[in-house]
Amino acid sequence: MSAHIINGRELADDLRAQMKDEVSKLHEQGIYPSLTVVLVGENPASLSYVKGKERASKKIGMHSNLIQLPASTSEQQLLGLIDQLNNDTTVHGILVQLPLPSHISEDIIIEAISPAKDVDGFHPISIGRMIAGKDTFLPCTPYGIMTMLDEKGITVEGKHAVILGRSRIVGKPIGQMLLNRHATVTYCHSRTKQLDRYLQQADILIVAIGQAHFITDKQIKEDAVVIDVGINRLEDGSIVGDVDFDSAKEKASYITPVPKGVGPMTITMLLQNTIKAARQMNQVTNGSTSRDG
Ligand SMILES: NC(=O)C1=CN([C@@H]2O[C@H](COP(=O)(O)OP(=O)(O)OC[C@H]3O[C@@H](n4cnc5c(N)ncnc54)[C@H](OP(=O)(O)O)[C@@H]3O)[C@@H](O)[C@H]2O)C=CC1
Ligand SMILES: Nc1nc(=O)c2c([nH]1)NC[C@@H]1CN(c3ccc(C(=O)N[C@@H](CCC(=O)O)C(=O)O)cc3)C=[N+]21
Question: What ligand has the least distance to the C-alpha of 123?
């Protein structure tokens, strides 16, 4: 039987419709949730992502401000901007698009962002709170994946979740969030030996490596839940995931497509985090509960 396809685009649209109402209720209280995205350099893929974030913010009535800086910007200059944004009470969320040019330390920049405005959830304080299972800003891509699993009623407890990829923004945090929900978690990466041994055991397989069509039906377990995070642009301009969707969908029980899978959910959770930041900064306590434990 063919897998259930988890349409991230549709789920994202439903959630954003609810967020639009939340934002207009906040407006009535004089609170204007606002996101500032900082892009350093001219990477075309990054520019297209940040434009997507800006469009999505505007669509739900949220203020969004894109600050574009040249690739030659120094670490000191970027730190100066972050300091200014940290102290600007009209800014609720700060997102510095990654990757940064190699002369700027991502760790130093991420640590400079006020944890109260860390809507990406990458600050060590946010990561620490997430690991401890405390309320915090959850990183958007893993948060989006957990929301998709929950919406489909897919249980995590007791399942073997195999994560392919161990990046700061996807692999590491999704494994931790699945662990918090009582999955048994295995991390695989480029040094993993006999990768297929682990893949065959995965009840839930999360793939985030950035290699087009790396995983095929041969490597997955019958009825696995397959979450494809990869975004790979082919020479013909089309976008594909890390999973060979056409073959994998015949073996999986649930699968996310690319595009219209995890990507739109990432942006949605960023909006959710920005609303949460605006609420917290204005001491509005109702509503915005974390969807993950
Ligand atoms: N849909 C969305 O919302 C998002 C999509 N993405 C996409 O997800 C993909 C991954 O991005 P990101 O998490 O930033 O990844 P990174 O490029 O930062 O890291 C890639 C990870 O994959 C591992 N890896 C690479 N090749 C292999 C291989 N052949 N076998 C096993 N492991 C491998 C690396 O291992 P090692 O650590 O050993 O080097 C590393 O841990 C990209 O396509 C990106 O565009 C990213 C963020 C959000
Ligand atoms: N500080 C920071 N935070 C991030 O969250 C972050 C980042 N840096 N750097 C890069 C990655 C990548 N990322 C994506 C978000 C949405 C889509 C998305 O919406 N994709 C659409 C298609 C996009 C298209 O058509 O180009 C989809 O999958 O349907 C993709 C990728 C966020 N990232």
Answer: 2
Contacts of 116 (CB under 8 A, 6+ apart): 277, 280, 281
Q: Is the CB of 258 under 6 A from ligand 2?
A: yes
Strand blocks (E) in 10-92: 34-40, 63-69
Q: Is 241 in the pocket of ligand 2 (CB under 6 A)?
A: no
CATH superfamily of 30-114: Leucine Dehydrogenase, chain A, domain 1 (3.40.50.10860)
Superfamily, domain 140-263: NAD(P)-binding Rossmann-like Domain (3.40.50.720)
Tens-binned pLDDT, residue by residue, of the chain (293 aa): 799 999 999 999 999 999 999 999 999 999 999 999 999 999 999 999 999 999 999 999 999 999 999 999 999 999 999 999 999 999 999 999 999 999 999 999 999 999 999 999 999 999 999 999 999 999 999 999 999 999 999 999 999 999 999 999 999 999 999 999 999 999 999 999 999 999 999 999 999 999 999 999 999 999 999 999 999 999 999 999 999 999 999 999 999 999 999 999 999 999 999 999 999 999 887 554 444 44
Catalytic residue status for 244: no
C-alpha distance from residue 260 to each of 8, 25, 245 (Å): 5, 29, 13
> Domain limits of the chain?
30-114, 140-263
Name the active-site residue from 118, 120, 228, 242: 120
Task: Please determine whether the domains at 30-114 and 140-263 fall in the same fold group of CATH.
Answer: yes
68 part of the active site: no
